[in-house]
RNA sequence: GUCCCGUUCGUCUAGCCAGGUCUAGGACACAGGGUUUUCAUCCCUGCAACAGGGGUUCGAAUCCCCUACGGGACGCCA
């Protein structure tokens, strides 16, 4: 596989849309897969909305997702500058080339690209006006995803505005040429634009890159492509909700691409190894948060302990959890890695480990008191645990077994629910014995003793 | 309105290019069951789709045509 030079060319708008993120991801994956180069180019022609803050959001999002670029802002490269606003001279040169070739003309202060072919005028229903059209030779686009797409451009189009600013179509093509881009991987919404781009490539005497138009991401409900506004449509939303960057990456990769072998959970390296343009889907995809949540959960489970701990720290700190006892916090978190479904729920999930004033879940309490004599069981288990000197999972297991045996029971199950509830206030959580072991003898006994006074009756 | 792209379970998708092995496979979700101290995990089972019509063929989810529906483009936005 030859090394590809691909680019992600966003226009900073102040947010980082998931659709853009997926386009960036596919480009990044393809560059990595082929051992090629991933270029980040900022399309900031036009506009006051292209602020420094908007660019920061984008770069931060890219870095959070782990999509590092080989050339572009802040890292440089041999094909710069990588901001379109700084490439005026390059565009000027190419516009002159078009004039020289008789493929550009001025009208109303703007520069138009001149199509070749027979001209005629026609009433246009869309523009509600009589317009000039050209019968051009149709362009044949060889798209890796869609096969051959044949389409003819029928109107001359603006390449430089009357204010002197070059237009997207022109700068996009000129940059792709001058930056040596080999593969253009972008959203299907650009497919119709591609005929314009092909005209420009040809008029400038440059070979066409390989095109791959990837499907759109549609709203999970309702019509149309994924909206630009709202919660859950931007990368920042998922960062704020403490999703794993790789969880989002894995999910996004599956939206419009698959590995053909039923594998859905990938490490970053597996994704790079398996990603291929031919696995890209033609049909549009609908965004499904439930599947995202599932993949995120699975990726939490697969995290190496160190990475898991590192990711947890900021989540708990921002929730105000006191983690001054590092070794203890670490034990608590490792207890939870296989139980928790998202990092977001972690602070609530571990609250009782760090706060003696934890609350009691009323539903679980009702269930507990509905059957048997929990207070009697509590007295028994309290006495049994008080005798444990060497407080660890093994000796605790033994203490429970002895307790069962001395009461003529096979297993100590009837003491478990009340134990869990009095020390944690919940009906669920990490495995009981390891949990008691981590909490420590003193905490456990104190909580058991205070339970009758603290439990709201 | 014109042009382009698409259409397999509710959702993401495999299969389609090289027609038979497809009573259409996997995953999420959902439902039921089992394991379990746990509304967690795990395991099992179930539910559920080739948009419609025509053609080609011994045979079509797979090839061709039409229709319908969905998406996109048609900006001196990108």
Architecture overview:
- The protein is an alpha/beta fold and 457 residues long.
- It has four domains: 87-214, HUPs (Rossmann fold); 235-302, Glutamyl-trna Synthetase, Domain 2 (Glutamyl-tRNA Synthetase, domain 2, Orthogonal Bundle); 305-354, Orthogonal Bundle (Helicase, Ruva Protein, domain 3); 362-454, Arc Repressor Mutant, subunit A (Orthogonal Bundle), CATH 1.10.10.350.
- The chain contains 18 helices and 13 strands.
- Helix 1 (18-34) packs across helix 8 (268-274), helix 11 packs antiparallel against helix 17 and helix 14 (374-386) crosses helix 15 (393-406).
- The protein is elongated, with a radius of gyration of 31 Å.
- The mean pLDDT is 91.
- The chain binds one RNA strand of 78 nucleotides through strand 8, strand 9, helix 4, strand 13 and helix 9.
CATH superfamily of the largest domain: HUPs
Q: Largest sheet, order of strands side by side?
A: 3-4-9
- Which structural class matches the secondary elements? alpha/beta
Shape: elongated
Portion of residues in helices?
A: 40-55%
Oligomerization category of the chains in this entry:
single chain
Query: How many helices does DSSP assign?
Result: 18
């Amino acid at each position: 596989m030859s090394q590809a030079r691909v680019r992600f060319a966003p226009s900073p708008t102040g947010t980082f849309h998931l659709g853009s993120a997926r386009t960036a991801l596919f480009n990044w994956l393809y560059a990595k897969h082929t051992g090629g180069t991933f270029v980040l180019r900022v399309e900031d022609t036009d506009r006051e909305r292209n602020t420094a803050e908007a660019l920061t959001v984008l770069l931060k999002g890219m870095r959070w997702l782990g999509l590092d670029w080989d050339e572009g802002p802040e890292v440089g490269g041999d094909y710069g500058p990588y901001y379109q606003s700084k490439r005026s001279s390059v565009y000027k040169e190419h516009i002159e080339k078009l004039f020289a070739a008789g493929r550009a003309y001025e009208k109303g202060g703007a520069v138009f690209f001149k199509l070749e072919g027979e001209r005629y005028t026609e009433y246009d229903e869309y523009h509600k006006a009589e317009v000039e059209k050209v019968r051009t030779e149709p362009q044949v686009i060889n798209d890796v995803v869609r096969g051959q797409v044949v389409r003819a451009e029928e109107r001359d189009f603006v390449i430089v505005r009357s204010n002197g600013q070059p237009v997207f179509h022109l700068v996009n093509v000129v940059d792709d040429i001058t930056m040596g881009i080999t593969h253009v991987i972008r959203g299907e919404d650009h497919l119709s634009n591609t005929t314009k781009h092909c005209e420009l490539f040809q008029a400038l005497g440059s070979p066409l890159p390989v095109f791959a138009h990837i499907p759109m991401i549609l709203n999970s409900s309702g019509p149309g492509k994924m909206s630009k506004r709202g919660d859950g449509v931007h990368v920042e939303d998922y960062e704020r909700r403490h999703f794993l960057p790789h969880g989002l990456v894995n999910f996004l990769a599956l939206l419009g691409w698959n590995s053909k072998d039923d594998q859905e959970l990938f490490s970053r390296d597996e994704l790079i190894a398996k990603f291929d343009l031919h696995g890209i889907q033609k049909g549009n995809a609908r965004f499904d948060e439930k599947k995202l949540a599932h993949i995120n959960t699975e990726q939490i489970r697969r995290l190496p302990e160190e990475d898991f701990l590192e990711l947890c720290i900021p989540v708990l700190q921002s929730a105000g959890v006191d983690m001054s006892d590092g070794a203890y916090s670490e034990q608590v978190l490792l207890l939870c890695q296989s139980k928790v479904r998202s990092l977001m729920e972690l602070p609530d999930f571990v609250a009782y480990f760090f706060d003696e004033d934890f609350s009691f879940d009323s539903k679980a309490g009702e269930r507990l008191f509905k059957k048997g004599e929990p207070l009697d069981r509590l007295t028994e288990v309290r006495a049994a645990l008080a005798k444990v000197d060497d407080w660890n999972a093994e000796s605790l297991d033994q203490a429970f077994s002895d307790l069962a045996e001395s009461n003529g029971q096979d297993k100590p199950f009837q003491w478990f629910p009340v134990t869990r509830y009095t020390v944690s206030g919940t009906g669920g959580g990490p495995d009981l014995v390891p949990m008691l072991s981590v909490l420590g003898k003193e905490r456990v006994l104190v909580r058991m003793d205070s339970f009758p006074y603290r439990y709201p009756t």
